Amino acid sequence: MRPELLQNVRTLLPEHHPRPEIELLYAMMRDYPFRGGKGVRSELLLLSARAHGVRESTAERRSAGWEAALWLATTLELFQNWVLIHDDIADDSEERRGQPALHRQYGVPLALNAGDALHAYMWGALQKAGLPQAYAEVLTMIHRTAEGQHLDLAWVQQGQWNLSESDYLDMVRLKTAYYTVVTPLRLGAIAAGGQPDGRFEEAGTLLGAAFQIRDDVLNLIGDAALYGKEIGGDLLEGKRTLIALRWLETAPQERRELFLNEMAKNRPDKRPEVIGTLLGWLLESGAVQDAQSVADTLAERGLKLLSHALSAAPDQEAARTILALAEGLARRQK
Q1: Would you list the domain boundaries of the chain?
Q2: Total-model pTM
Q3: Residue 247, SS3 per DSSP
Q4: Taking a C-beta distance cutoff of 8 angstroms, is the pair 129, 75 a contact?
Q5: How many other C-beta atoms are found inside a 10 Å radius of the C-beta of residue 132?
Q6: How many other CB atoms are there within 10 angstroms of residue 316's CB atom?
């Protein structure tokens, strides 16, 4: 995350309180934002603002457009962090960005409340941007993300595995794509006083889906030190990934039954040795390569559409950087 955004977070979030219990709340709200996230979503927003005509400026002589863009980018960062607190609770995750998840450190009730409080301060960041038209964009982002998260959680809660590739893509377009690609692109245009290109939505959902598939792949084969989460966590959490769904289509009956029986268990009851066996089956099956091929196709389509959408942008250097960043997201290796 850019230093300017971290400074905005420091400015916005309270730090000290005479009651130590409330000071702990403040510390918990600051925890995830300062764990060193990559800040790719906020960077995409700022690049979009530049592409649409906002000049990047320094703190000493900061333009109104760049100031608004920075506060919109701060809004995105706070959104991601309060959502991650809640997501870690829902998934009973162990780690986030290489450290214990917040609920593992302080318990679910306090972590849940800290996420709620951070959500409220997110709206404070949006207010500082001073762009009323941005509210509808942020609301849409929250609605779509919640819908995708509901699909993801409902499938786990209901033990549903009879799902297609289309089901999976519907879920990740909602859960991941809007806040990762669609909304940053659109908010950047709004920061420049423009109307977002209508093609941003389709391009963003294609690229966001490719990003999520890559994330699912890295969850199985990534470097834990670079990935920031536990390897194999999706199996422990019973996630419906494209990799698992593809594998189930052709898995021998006895392996399929073992997989489904283990996935039906709560996380603490899953056996590490069985999870290791399941991971080996997934990796040797070719399902990972199949999923990567789907991600490549989605990325190619999304990049082509995004390139057309940015072809008339005032700042073509920034537009090219957006395309490079989007390609990096969709084809990420870490």
Answers
A1: 3-330
A2: 0.93
A3: helix
A4: yes
A5: 10
A6: 12
Distance (Å, rounded) from C-alpha 247 to C-alpha 285? 7
Contacts of 211 (CB under 8 A, 6+ apart): 176, 177, 180, 181, 329, 330, 332
pLDDT tier, 1 (very low <50, low <70, confident <90, very high otherwise): confident
Nearest by Cα to 82 from 115, 42, 37: 115
Answer CATH for 3-330 from 1.10.1520.10, 1.10.245.10, 3.20.20.70, 1.10.600.10: 1.10.600.10
Q: Tell me: the pLDDT tens digits for 126-167?
A: 999 999 999 999 999 999 999 999 999 999 999 999 999 999
| Residue 332, pLDDT score | 80
Q: What does the alpha-carbon distance between residue 216 and residue 281 come to, in Å, rounded to a whole number?
A: 16
211 with 181: CB under 8 angstroms?
yes
Mean pLDDT of the chain: 94
For 222-243, the pLDDT digits (tens) are: 665 555 566 788 999 999 999 9
- Residue 219 burial class via C-beta count within 10 angstroms: exposed 0-12, middle 13-18, buried 19 and up: buried
CA distances from 271 to 136, 236, 277 (A): 45, 9, 10
pLDDT recorded at residue 60: 63
